[in-house]
C-alpha cells in the first residue's frame, strides 16, 4: 500500500503546472526508515553519541530561545583547529548535504555541467539537478575505481567525487586526485564524509589548488548525524562564495555547541571507535565470505556486497529485524546490499540472522513468499 510520502513524491514528480520546471522530474528522498532491531542502513556511528557532546546538548537546550551564530564562527574555529587550517577556509552547513548543495550553487551557473562518478553518493546528483546543473555521469572502471581520465576530460564546470566512495567503499588515491586537478580546470568537490575511517585528508592540497573544496561531516565518525553538521574546506575566496550560497543560520545552536564540544574533547573517543570499526569491518568481511558473499574492499565503515538477489535478501533480513541498504542496478556492480559496521556483539546478531536467512533460502523455503 503506498504511504503518504509515496503519494506526495509522486504528486511532486508529476505535477507540471506549478513551480520550477527542473523540479518536476525530481522525487523526494525516500529510504526505508522503519525501526529495526539491528539497523545497519545508514553508515552512522553505531557506538552512539560521544560523551562530551551529550552533555553539551543538554546544556545548550536552555539557550534555544535565541538565534545561533549567523555563520557558526565558533564552530568554524573548532573545525579549523581539527583540520589544521585557518577558520577562513571553513564553511559549515546543515549536514554535508547542505554544503554540497551550496557548493553547486556557488561554483557553477544554471545550465553548466557537473561530472560525477557512478555509482557514488546519489544525493549529489539530485543536488546538481536542483541547482539547474546538468549531470554528466561517468561509470566506474571495471575494477570499480573512479575513472579519473573521463571525469577530467568531461568538460564540466564542477566535478564531484567521494573518497571513500559511497556505496562502494573504494578510496581514490591522492595521486589520482592530483591527476584530476591537473587534467581539468573544473572546480572539484571532494567528499570525504568517511575520511576518518580511511585515515586520509586532502585539505593540504588546497594550498596548491584553489579549485578544490573538501567536504566533510560530523554525521559519521563523530556520531552526530541527527544534529546535521557538515563542513567544507577550501580557499578563503571560494569559501566566501559557498557561504553566500549557503545562507545564514544553517547550523542550529544545539548542534553548534555539541559539535564544538566533540571537536575539542571527544577526539579520542572518536579515534577509538574508528579503530574498532576498521577491525570489525575486516573481521566481518572474512565471515561474510564464508557465507558466500563477496564484499568489495572498503576504506569506510561499511561493506558493499554485490548479490543478484539483493532485494529478496533485504526483505528477508527486514523480516527478522535487520536493516541493510539495498541497491538495484548499480553501474558496473548490479544489485547489492550495503552493511554498516558497528560493535562486534551487534555484528554477531546480524551474522546469526543472516546465516539463518541464507540457510532458509538455500533450502528453497522462502522462494514462494519472495518471488
Ligand atoms: N557524502 C556522503 C558520501 C555520504 O554518504 C553522506 C550520507 N550518507 C553525505 C555526504 C551526507 O551526510 P550528512 O549530510 O549527514 O553530513
What does this structure look like?
By secondary structure, the chain is α/β, with parallel strands linked by helices. 40% of the residues lie in helices and 16% in strands. It is built from 13 helices and 12 strands. The chain has helices at 4-14, 51-60, 73-83, 95-107, 122-130, 148-152, 174-183, 195-198, 236-246, 253-265, 267-290, 310-319, 344-362, and strands spanning 38-39, 90-94, 113-118, 134-139, 158-162, 187-191, 212-217, 229-233, 302-306, 322-323, 325-330, 334-340. The strands form 3 sheets. A 7-stranded mixed β-sheet has the order 2-8-7-6-5-3-4, sandwiched between helices. Strands 9-12-11 form a 3-stranded antiparallel β-sheet, covered by helices on one side. A two-stranded parallel sheet has the order 1-10. Strand 11 (325-330) and strand 12 (334-340) form a beta hairpin. The longest helix has 24 residues, at 267-290. The protein is globular, with a radius of gyration of 21 Å. The two termini are 18 Å apart. The mean pLDDT is 94. It binds 4'-deoxy-4'-aminopyridoxal-5'-phosphate. 4'-deoxy-4'-aminopyridoxal-5'-phosphate (PMP) binds next to helix 4.
Amino acid at each position: 500500500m503506498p504511504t503518504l510520502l509515496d503519494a506526495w513524491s509522486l504528486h511532486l514528480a508529476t505535477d507540471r503546472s506549478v513551480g520550477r520546471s527542473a523540479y518536476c522530474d525530481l522525487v523526494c528522498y525516500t529510504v526505508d526508515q522503519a525501526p529495526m532491531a539491528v539497523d545497519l542502513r545508514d553508515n552512522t556511528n553505531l557506538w552512539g553519541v560521544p560523551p562530551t557532546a551529550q552533555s553539551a546538548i543538554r546544556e545548550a537546550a536552555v539557550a534555544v530561545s535565541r538565534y545561533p551564530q549567523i555563520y557558526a564562527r565558533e564552530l568554524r574555529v573548532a573545525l579549523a583547529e581539527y583540520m589544521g587550517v585557518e577558520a577562513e577556509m571553513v564553511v559549515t552547513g546543515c549536514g554535508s548535504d547542505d554544503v554540497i548543495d551550496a557548493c553547486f550553487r556557488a561554483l557553477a551557473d544554471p545550465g553548466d555541467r557537473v561530472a560525477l562518478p557512478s555509482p557514488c553518493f546519489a544525493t549529489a546528483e539530485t543536488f546538481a539537478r536542483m541547482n539547474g546543473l546538468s549531470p554528466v555521469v561517468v561509470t566506474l572502471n571495471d575494477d570499480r575505481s573512479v575513472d579519473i581520465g573521463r571525469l577530467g576530460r568531461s568538460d564540466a564546470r564542477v566535478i564531484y567525487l567521494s573518497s571513500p566512495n559511497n556505496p562502494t567503499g573504494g578510496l581514490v588515491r591522492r595521486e589520482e586526485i592530483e591527476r584530476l586537478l591537473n587534467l581539468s580546470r573544473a572546480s572539484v568537490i571532494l567528499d570525504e564524509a568517511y575520511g576518518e575511517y580511511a585515515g586520509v585528508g586532502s585539505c593540504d592540497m588546497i594550498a596548491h589548488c584553489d579549485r578544490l573544496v573538501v567536504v566533510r561531516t560530523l554525521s559519521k565518525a563523530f556520531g552526530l548525524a541527527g544534529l546535521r553538521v557538515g563542513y567544507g574546506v577550501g580557499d578563503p575566496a571560494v569559501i566566501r562564495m559557498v557561504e553566500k550560497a549557503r545562507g545564514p543560520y544553517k547550523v542550529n545552536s544545539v548542534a553548534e555547541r555539541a559539535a564544538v564540544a566533540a571537536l575539542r574533547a571527544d577526539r579520542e573517543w572518536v579515534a577509538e571507535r574508528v579503530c574498532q570499526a576498521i577491525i570489525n569491518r575486516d573481521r566481518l568481511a572474512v565471515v561474510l565470505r564464508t557465507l558466500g558473499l563477496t564484499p568489495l574492499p572498503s576504506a569506510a565503515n561499511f561493506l558493499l556486497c554485490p548479490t543478484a538477489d539483493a532485494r529478496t535478501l533485504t526483505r528477508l533480513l527486514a523480516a527478522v529485524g535487520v536493516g541493510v541498504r539495498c541497491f538495484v542496478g548499480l553501474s558496473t556492480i548490479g544489485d547489492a546490499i550495503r552493511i554498516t559496521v558497528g560493535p562486534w556483539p551487534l555484528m554477531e546478531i546480524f551474522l546469526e540472522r543472516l546465516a539463518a536467512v541464507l540457510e532458509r533460502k538455500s533450502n528453497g523455503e522462502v522462494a514462494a513468499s519472495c518471488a
